[in-house]
Amino acid sequence: MSHIRQPLDARAVSLMLLLCILWGGQQSVIKLVADDMAATLQISLRSGIGLILIAGFMAWRGISFAMHKGPWRAGIIAGLLFGFEFLFIGEGLRYTTASHMAVFLYTAPIFTALGLHFLIPEERLSKKQWLGISLCFVGIAVAFLGGFAQPTISNKILWGDFLGLMAGFLWGSTTVVIRVTGLNRIPAAQTTLYQLVAAFVILLLAAMLSDQMTVNWTPELITALAAQGIVIAFFTLLVWFWLLSRYLASRLASFTFLTPLFGVAFGVLLLDDPLDIAFVLGAALVIIGVSVVNHPKSR
Length: 299
What we know:
By secondary structure, the protein is an all-alpha fold. It has helices at 10-32, 39-61, 72-92, 98-105, 108-119, 127-149, 155-180, 188-209, 219-246, 249-253, 258-271, 277-294. The chain has one domain. Helices cover 75% and strands 0% of the residues. Helix 2 (39-61) crosses helix 9 (219-246). The radius of gyration is 19 Å and the shape is globular. It is a multi-pass membrane protein. Belongs to the EamA transporter family. The chain crosses the membrane at residues 43-60, 72-89, 101-119, 131-150, 162-180, 192-209, 221-245, 252-271, 277-294. Residues 12-144, 158-294 form the EamA domain.
């Protein structure tokens, strides 16, 4: 197979739009059935489902399970970062809305860009990208300060927003670890295996220790878990890695800003999430900033 990445064609654009829609809706799906199963436990079980499916995929494709022969130290670090990222998402969704979580979580590309700027010379940020990062952080400040200024915004929501922002930081850090270590030279399925194992164990322990193991098995919950495990934790990851193997990563990343837009839309439509003016303005600045940072540099 050729290692030359190609510009986006109609197939790549269609698949990226599908991924953005699916990723944007996952927080709302978790919140929809949170009364039947805690978000933290949901994410743990979905990681377990994804883990089984990824392991089956590796066996089918003949990908080695001998993880100790590769960069296992980096794999453990990436797995821990991934696991705690989703722990923050699960806990954050207990306090904040799906719309808020979608916006703060998808600040991750900003943290990735900052980390790579200092670690990889060819990933230095341009002046335009620094402007995008500045817009993003101004947007975060507006969203938070606007919440403090409004008596209708509870401290619980602000705490959930903060956990969402920390999840974005950990997601960005995970990407940096994968980019600068030997993990970028092993099959993507192996890296995903590290991440799903860590997420399953960490979130399951967290759910047990925080007494979040109560489950009310309903058709809606079963459907949501199946969708999260099969579609989010397995299908979207395989499609994403397939796209990365064939198309220019910078062009694919330019679609990232669409995901929080879909996330906010799903939150409003499915959960009647309220949107105050401070959050709307801050979210707009964050999304614009992310799109500027991810836009390919001019040659």
